[in-house]
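thread: overnight batch results

M.L. [08:02]
morning all. the overnight job finished for the chain we discussed friday. pasting input first so we're all looking at the same thing
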Amino acid sequence: MSVVAQMMKESIEQGSLIRQMFDLGLKLKQKYGAENVMDFSLGNPDLPPPPVVQQAMADLAKNLNRPASLGYMQNAGYAWALDALAEELTKEQNVPLTRAELMLSCGAAGAMNVFFHSVLEPEDEVLAFTPFFGEYKFYVRNHGGIFKTVPTHEDFMPDFAALEKAITPKTRALIINSPNNPTGVIYSEEVIKKLAAILERASQTNKRPVYLISDEPYRYLAYEKSVVPAVLPLYKYAVVISSFSKKFGIAGERIGYLAVSPQIEDKELLLGACIMSNRILGFVNPPVVGQYLMKAALGSSTEYALNIYAKRREVFCDILDKAGIEYQKPMGAFYIFPKAPYGDDDLLIKCLQEEKILGVSGKGFGLAGYIRLCYAVEDSVIEKSREGFKRAVEKMHSLKKV
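M.L. [08:03]
and the structure it wrote out:
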């Protein structure tokens, strides 16, 4: 006799490997001391919010004596916050946007759940390329959908033939994530145009839109002047979902958004459905404090964070080179997704744990044989792991020779 739904039992068993490793990290830090554990498991930005966010928080605190200063507002968010975001996204996405195409949300995760709740019929299919952010499958399943994966090439770029083969009459959306978590890959405009052409044909065949959902929380982290192309001008049924968690270091504030292409027919109906979903899913409205912080920070430079993460990327790549671990250098985000020696990610994770180094198995992202490492940690933590990586690989070689 089960006290929870079967779906939830299965979800708990599958779990999130990222969170499991994060919890293990807490236990190891309690046992050995935080300074002795090198935790690269969770994408939790370690940089403080920029000064403009700190000032906005201080200013808000001085004005909390106003009536309903932390009260409810429209389910989509404050009009002034939506207008400010529309102005920013008009420049970023190269299409004119107004609050009529936007909705603020409880993080990008909230926006994605809201969107799926609004567009999925039972057993509709949502596609994503491997490797993918592991929570996607749960977000789809939350709303009666079926999550399906599509393979990529060795360089983690989309396999267009595999995508066309994966599409069925039940296909409702394709999720892309660029810059990518966990690989750091950035899709070029040419790649997105090819994806859009495939989805356009599928929309015509299926006689309903097949959406292209672009998940963009790492847009601001593109190295060596790499360009992250705007998606909304490239496909009629494009939807951008993002947050300010990583960009402004306010992940716990849970402020994100959803923006739809102005070209979508019945966009008023689509946004109306999303706003209603935001309400009835229990999010109700986006966080008040997050909206104030967002508005204050919009348009501010992210060069400081970009430079720090770029330097950390170089150090991490050098550590992996010296340890003899193969990898593809990330173009963006703050993750690296190296190959496990012998393709044995479980053994590599085990050997690293013995060195008090934590990473996440590629299985958590739908691709065994790799591990994900996050370098949103202090420089000293990264450098401290150098010899541990070498010893872990040496131990793997010795074990594999037995």
